[in-house]
Amino acid sequence: MDFDRFKITGDKKVSLKDYPTDYDGGLSEDDLKEAVKGVSKDIVELQEKLFAEKQQSLLIVLQAMDAAGKDSTIEKLTYSMNAQGCNVHSFKKPCKTELAHDFLWRIHAAAPAKGEINIFNRSHYEDVLIVKAHGWASDKTIEKRYQHINNFEELLSDSGTRVVKFMLNISPDYQLERFKRRLRRPEKHWKFNPADIEERKLWPQYMSAFEQVFEHCSSNAAPWYIVPAENRRFRDYMMASVVKAHLNDLSPKYPKPNFDADRYTADSLE
Amino acid sequence: MDFDRFKITGDKKVSLKDYPTDYDGGLSEDDLKEAVKGVSKDIVELQEKLFAEKQQSLLIVLQAMDAAGKDSTIEKLTYSMNAQGCNVHSFKKPCKTELAHDFLWRIHAAAPAKGEINIFNRSHYEDVLIVKAHGWASDKTIEKRYQHINNFEELLSDSGTRVVKFMLNISPDYQLERFKRRLRRPEKHWKFNPADIEERKLWPQYMSAFEQVFEHCSSNAAPWYIVPAENRRFRDYMMASVVKAHLNDLSPKYPKPNFDADRYTADSLE
After folding, report:
1. Do B258 and A193 touch (CB under 8 A)?
2. Which candidate, B36, B53, B29, places its Cα nearest to that of B1?
3. If exposure means fewest CB atoms within 10 Å of the residue's CB, which of A12, A52, A81, A259 is most exposed?
4. Is ipTM beyond 0.90?
5. Is A159's Cβ below 8 Å from some Cβ in B?
6. Nearest-CA residue of chain A relative to B180?
7. Rounded distance, CA A180 to CA B268, Å?
8. What Rg, from alpha-carbon coordinates, does chain B have?
9. CA-to-CA distance for A241 and A40, rounded, in angstroms?
10. Rounded to two decimals, what is the model's pTM?
11. Residue A195 forms contact with B (CB below 8 Å)
């Protein structure tokens, strides 16, 4: 399947209402479940080569409204990955030490090393999303931040890190259903925060902030994907497929042995 | 199954020759494969509670001779874990910056946060294993290090981190077979290092260094387990079972909601 219709490379204005939140790609639940298995197997192999090669890395950025399914997306995406070589960083409200530095300081520290796949659950984009939605910074500051973000991602990209960014796209109605679901299940209460109900009121401001991000912080080297996230099977299939495509494009290879393969053979060890 | 016969709590001298390297616990391959599935499911649930509770953490330390299977042990153990909340740290030969600090500096920085499970692929124990086997430090320095290690692990333990240490136990013959296997398979050449052949010659010194570690750096709060690692299915079953037992013992619980559950209900959101 071609996911280019969900890909943003910065060449045009984006209106989120043109993007579906619930989509199955014409595939049944069972088709999607099977398809993701095949893709996952390919990812396992590509990850091992990336890890062995130790020349390139992959940074996956995940942004979404509350309850859009970030945690379960990460769980499904990493299910078949080797934990050694894959790190997940969750960025919460910055602490005092973090606030005493520029907004990219804590982000840079969590960038993947060569050979690694890192996943950001929220990211530097919070500083141009929640901050913009609430009006906590001036337009001028936000515009400067777009530029800092682009420069930072270009630095990563020039250093062998592929940056791939995903927005899990849901409707306000879907979010409300998820909140209700959390309240109905006591073992999910720990995920519910009454403040999220207040935050919902800023939905239009958030969507507008996302659209600005797509317009200002997308490129071929660091694209955004707007993932229809209400159908979780399609979401998982799309996430895995796009990640696989980018790993494929990096084309990692097992490194040449750093020893004389004629001298060291299985027989030579007898 | 009871794994206490493989557990070291520091109350006695340990001779590695009393511990099997190849062991199936009287179970068939298929039995072991099925058993590990059941244990993994329990770990998934326990990990979610640990993550939600955010009061305690688990540190898994893995040490072994080359080619004992550390990487594949980690792969199997983490297969069912959620990557969010599980970090693997591999400690290589220390770099200049690391050497400019005490030997526990880089280790402490990688300790798990509350709610997390961290796995160390090699660890602070290298500083009393490889260093001792090669005679790179005096006996007095090594003995001081045992004490520093115990104090450090006590600090972690007092702060809510359960420390569980595993030595993957193999024979020199098994190691040789694994080296040969790597040389026979071009896609495994990147894992072969001719220096490992030299290192083999110090096998008795390494075994003695391990025995000293077991004697000096084991306790009920931070036990060692000597894992028979040649039968990989038994190894995986034992690793998962011991990890599950310790998680069970921590008994993590979903936290109480930090909101008024009478006020916020699914109906209240209508």
Report:
1. yes
2. B36
3. A12
4. no
5. no
6. A266
7. 9
8. 20
9. 8
10. 0.91
11. no
